[in-house]
User: Which sequence fits this backbone?
């Protein structure tokens, strides 16, 4: 007996639907916000202005400005390199004790420093147009307290995070905060020292062509 044409057409449509569903399961579309995608360039230049807040002793604090370059290495990770400058008061904060040992206790915004740093920044899925990120890094720091004629070099570890939003195809703005821990050696018979501080700032980053 010959099957009705309508029954044959129904079978053909059912077979096509099954093939489409199987293709969608094997090759799903990415979810919105799952990875940075196109809103973070594979190469960007950035600038930061903010504050370095020192915990005293020989940690530099004051106005912090920095420039940075980021370069994409995975779907969610970027190398992050830069150069930073700290501008604080040069007021004296050191004295000699009874044993002629140099003791220093500078304020939260004293001293000057140059930092050369590098690390890895990881971007996370967008949240209502904002892109959060975390960064770990290490740097070399040269610190100077002018009135005390005290200079030292340190290795500094940093852990921080921030958020940014793109305002057009090439420019993103945001903010960040980071904890910095360093260890170094200072002259003028001061010797080894620990540095501990917090930085906060505003960022602007530009996609390179």
Assistant:
């Amino acid at each position: 007996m010959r099957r009705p044409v309508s029954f044959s057409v129904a079978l053909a449509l059912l077979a096509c639907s099954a093939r489409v569903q199987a293709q969608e399961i094997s090759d799903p579309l990415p979810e919105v916000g799952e990875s940075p995608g196109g809103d973070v360039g594979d190469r960007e230049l950035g600038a930061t202005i903010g504050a370095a807040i020192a915990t005293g002793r020989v940690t530099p604090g004051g106005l912090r400005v920095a420039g940075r370059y980021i370069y994409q290495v995975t779907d969610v990770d970027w190398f992050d390199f830069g150069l930073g400058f700290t501008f604080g008061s040069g007021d004296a904060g050191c004295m000699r004790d009874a044993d002629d040992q140099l003791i220093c206790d500078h304020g939260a915004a004293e001293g000057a420093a140059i930092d050369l740093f590098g690390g890895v920044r990881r971007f996370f899925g967008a949240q209502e147009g904002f892109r959060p990120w975390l960064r770990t890094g290490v740097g070399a720091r040269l610190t100077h307290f002018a009135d005390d004629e005290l200079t030292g070099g340190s290795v500094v570890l940093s852990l921080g995070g921030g958020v940014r939003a793109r305002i057009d195809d090439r420019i993103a703005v945001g903010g960040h905060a980071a904890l910095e821990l360093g260890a170094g050696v200072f002259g003028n018979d001061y010797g080894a020292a620990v540095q501990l501080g917090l930085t906060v700032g505003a960022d602007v980053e530009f996609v390179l062509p």
In short: The first strand starts at residue 43 and ends at 54.
